[in-house]
């Protein structure tokens, strides 16, 4: 009889211990669940006019590597680059590779905002990447006003001239020319020549990954780039 009582007490103790361990595991799993990601776009005024694109930082549990899953493929708004040679990066962070560089006034489509970084899509090349939010503005930079001349003051009485449709080949040439002219150095493409008159070749920005990526050849121009350029005309 004594042995039976001791065995029953041991069994009850084991059942109690197993139940306590299961409850602790359930509580631990619930506490480890990541909180919902909150990405809220905001705009702040900056010195010299315009507004700066910013956002609320993601909640605990969200890392920069998982930030690409937050954004959508739809363009939220058109924003403009602030500064010179602004880096378009592969992921949100200064340690990631540079896909391209843009100068001030470059229009890009805003896809999403995660913390201090914004996922954008270039209107010309259709390339997607990340730019620091403080280097983007929702206001288009103002161009310097031109001086009025007698010819420009008087309204033109002539009928508007119908502009013929521009061919795709001409648009391709204009896209390449615009991309090359936006490069600040002397060697954007392999066929160009540097200031000393030497052929750029492999020293060109086109041949070096990780920096500016100018468009040098018709094969680099996609149909989406052609249609996007035609919409600007």
Task: Give a written overview of the molecule.
- 25% of the residues lie in helices and 19% in strands.
- With 233 residues, it is of the alpha+beta class.
- It is elongated.
- Mean pLDDT is 74; it is low at 31-41 and 54-72.
Describe the structure in brief.
This protein has 233 residues and is α+β, with helices and mostly antiparallel strands.
Give the H and E element order: HEEEEEEEEEHHH
What is the share of helical residues?
A: 25-40%
Please list the strands of the largest sheet in the order they lie side by side: 8-7-6-3-9
Radius of gyration: 29 Å
Query: What is the global morphology?
Result: elongated
Low-confidence stretches: 31-41, 54-72
**Structural class by sheet pairing and helices:** alpha+beta
End-to-end CA span: 99 Å
Main β-sheet, in a few words? 5 strands, antiparallel
